[in-house]
Amino acid sequence: MKNLEVPSFTVESRGTTFTYASPRSGAASMDFVADTIRAKDPSTSRIVLICQQNSEADHLKSELGIRNVNTIRLAADDPMVHQVLLLWSKGYIQQALILCDGMLNFLEGIEVNLGIHATLPPLKTFEERLEMLSKSETKAEMLVITGPNEENNSGGNINKPEPEIGDFPQNGVNQNPKMVGQPVKEMTAEKAQNIEDIYFKRGSPVKSSTDSQDCIKPVRVPELQKTEKGAIPKAIGSPTSPSITIENHKHAFEVFWKQFGLKQNSENSELSSVSFETIPTPLNLFELEDQEDTPSSDVEDILEEVLNRSLQGSTNSDSSTPILFGSVPTPQSSLEIEQLTEKLGQECTSQMPGDSSVEDPIDLYTSTSPESFQSFEEYDPGASPKDDPPPAAVFPHALETTRYHFGVLAWSRHVLIPCYSLSGVSNISTPIRRAMEQLGLGTERARGIQRFAWPHVSSGKSLMVVGNMQSGKTWCYLPTLCQRSHEILQRRPADGYAYGPASIFVCPNQLQGNQIERWVSQLLGSLEDDVYMERVVTLWEKGSVAYTACRLYQPVGILLTTVDLLLQLMTHHSKRNPIFDARAVKYIALDNLNDMVRLLPVTTTKLLKRLPELFDFGQGKCQLLVSGRTWHDDQVMDRVLSLMPDALVLFEDPLEASFYMGAKLEHKVLPETQKLGHLVGLIRGRNLAEERIAVVCPNQVEVLRLSHLLAEMDVKAQACFSEAGFSMVAKWRDESRALVLLVSDDVVPKLRCGRIDLLIHYSWASSWMRFKLRFALFYDNYKRFYSKVSGQSVVFVQETDVDNNWLLADFALKHLLPRPTVLLDILAHRRLADQPNSQMPKLCRQLIAYGDCLRYRCRYRHVMRREELLPPKHFPTKGMIQFTVVTCASPANLAVRLSDQFPTKSYFLGFAMTQLGEQVQRHYEVDAHRRQHPNPKPGDKAVVKNLKRYERVVIVDVEKNDKVVVRLLDSSLEILTYNASKVYICEEIFKLQTDEAMEIRILGMEPGNLERIWGEDERQVVRTQFFSRLQNRRGRHFTAYVQFAIHDTIFVDNVYDDEGNDLVRFITDRFIFYQENDCLSKFNKLTQATGPC
């Protein structure tokens, strides 16, 4: 096995041949292993590759696959492991096997011809390996890979794809991340102290300001000298060397370590002559924004600025003045940093302020409301001298060139130290990082919110993150949640926590939960189990609640479920049969809280009330992690923030951040000809030197045009539409020039214009995202916690901006702002005026229910035909009616049966049956009477089986996949889908009967959102409480007064039960809704606009 291309030597021990090979790099190691395997005859050689960890084994398999060497990766939890080994031992499977130390016992009694130790373990572990392998049928030949790039405390690690920040070299010289895969030059011990040529950048330990004298200082390492191939001491490499024992292996190891300038100490080796440190980079803004790389004209001045800011951070780290905002400067290349260091001829020193070196301001606040969160000032080079600069924070040096423009606004009670990527978070383990890299995450720069969230959450603190869809919110806390849950699960037998989950992850629905489950499984799959227990338990169905409760009697890792099912699961928890251990649960995540509040507002509020009753939130205890797209009303957020004593609040959405900070949001509906005059009216009469006004336009053309028009009206303005104007904006900011600032959307992401009192949106941006980004101009208002300026925003809108008007109105309704009646009227008018769907067969349901349509997009008809106006002949049109409720579709929408026309004759399976219902049920219970409908068509009446009852239906639609859509006629008005084979012919005697179910709707009552969708739990509250169907109340009668009837809907002003309670008051006391008082006039206009038949 001697290879002249790779330094190696061979020894024999107890009849086994050991070959020690030292390739010069990780890539060379992989090539050498691949060549060795290919050189063997697969039909006669049984080859085993042995690794220490699962992640190393996975990486080894991937690298060999790239080199066209097919292998089989064996895992301990693989149910087919014994069958694979049996086939492999008999020669039916001829690929090499890859396994870890824990799998060696499976090889007992199996013939192994070649064992390749892909990673060199500690000596004790190596001896255990040899003992296990000695139990195989034959004496296997051994190949041990070692080399100068080994990083673990035992020696070789050819599988580690990239050095991680914070991992210190122990058995070899680590490479710079940029050098991975390149040949490594060897270093002799006597030259290790020289300081020249090479500068290694690695993460240094966190140091407080009091330890500044002990900070690790960067050391330059000399160029490593190549060693001649095969330059091994002859006493070892000679083929005439006598057979040696295990003790001689220790001597062989020591020779190799000495060759690379390392000192062997017991089982651990340590490189004492080289230390590493991160290049300090100042952090100036919590609103992160990448800027284009610009060449340095004076490298000495740049580095001097870097060092000065680092020194300021060192001297101010003990200051009690909290700091929050700063901006990330343009990253410099590693070569530029080396050149800067050489020019100054000095060593860069820095420190990372830890919690111990900063006064914890948490005791200064007793409230958890948003007002009690600290705001941190920015160190702005252009700010006035009275503003004290903040402490500098160490930011991992970045070599990324891809550019993104985004802003992040953050609040915390603690000094925040953001990271650049996942490798800068020391608390996140290497297997988790590698698993995220396989998912395409963590290999490049982190997203803005993740830079702050990862270090904060990994240190055991709570998080609230608000951002747009697919902005990386869930990944802000998922890695730490999975890692800590696994660690807790492995310790729980020893800790005495004998039941329940370690973490709870709550999703809005199963669809989103399935994706979370896949991510969690991939992350947890990278971690090894010392004690096997269930890692993930999912609960998606109501029928599985009791079964899941039984599973939680044992310790589990992560419970993944929805809001309503978690509440049901909590009912199974008791002192006698506990399923939740408050001591064991360390994380509770509410993912996409906005969807939970929108779909299940009542249930979500109940859960927030229940959480502090079961779990203990606080430092070192349970932490709450919340993400969402919107900042909700105080009723929700006050409960959430009360459970977050150490919260970090992150905003990726500037509009949501401005709403949170109390900015005034206004809109003015103006025609194009009046916009300029209204703008001048807003500007004149103000002291522009004190009241800072910014006007935003969508592009450069409009900025220049507006600047010219304002100049004609004697209004001075400072225009900025490119980076060339930033210097003038800085003067406008610093000198408080009495000018109006005109900017375009293109420069907003990079613009630093200071405090803004009035932000005017002269025209809409090209997209909703760019419009929201304009509110980042308010960020400077929030940097100083003593500032009382929240800012005012005025949007000039036009009636033709239908889509943008809808989005603006939707934002106002979701945040419980004053109802934008003018915008909604514009939307409703445009929907009725523009009739692209006037020939569509289906009529818009919103039009029938509310007299107008406010959908963002609507595919239905908005013109009623004359025959559609009149209700069915048996519908009452005025006076009092008495009825029984058969279905509660929403709090304001019911399906009823009139008591005088359709009295209850009997009950079938607890459901009230009329005479017609009894006849249909008895007829179709006979098999001979059920005949499949041969040709279903819309409008035909048919019979289906619904909830074990045969009922009449009308066919609504026939789909291509042999599905028939029907609407119930007697027991409800629900729309259901059936297979065509389950739709039966309706007998003529039943076709002629009147439809029993009628739709009743409370006039003008609608939910507080533009979709006009009530929450499912709101419907359940009304159904189970107001329309209760208990055994002694199932025949209840309700009364109402008819206002009018149109199409197939009866409109009433209220509904009263037999005790005099009214439904409107019941809803008012519990839910948020809107009562439209002008609904009747809308229907009058609708009838006047009725089209021909």
TrEMBL record:
Q: Which UniProt keywords apply?
A: ATP-binding, Helicase, Hydrolase, Nucleotide-binding, Repeat
**What's the domain of life for this entry?**
Eukaryota
Q: What is the catalytic activity of this protein?
A: ATP + H2O = ADP + phosphate + H(+)
GO terms in the biological process aspect are: germ-line stem cell division
Name listed for the protein in its UniProt record:
RNA helicase
EC number(s) stated in the UniProt entry for this protein:
3.6.4.13
| Molecular function via GO | ATP binding; hydrolase activity; RNA helicase activity
Q: Which organism is it from?
A: Drosophila rhopaloa
The family database entries (SUPFAM superfamilies) matched by this protein are listed as: P-loop containing nucleoside triphosphate hydrolases
Q: Return the broad EC class.
A: hydrolase
The cross-references to InterPro entries, in alphabetical order and at most eight, read:
P-loop_NTPase
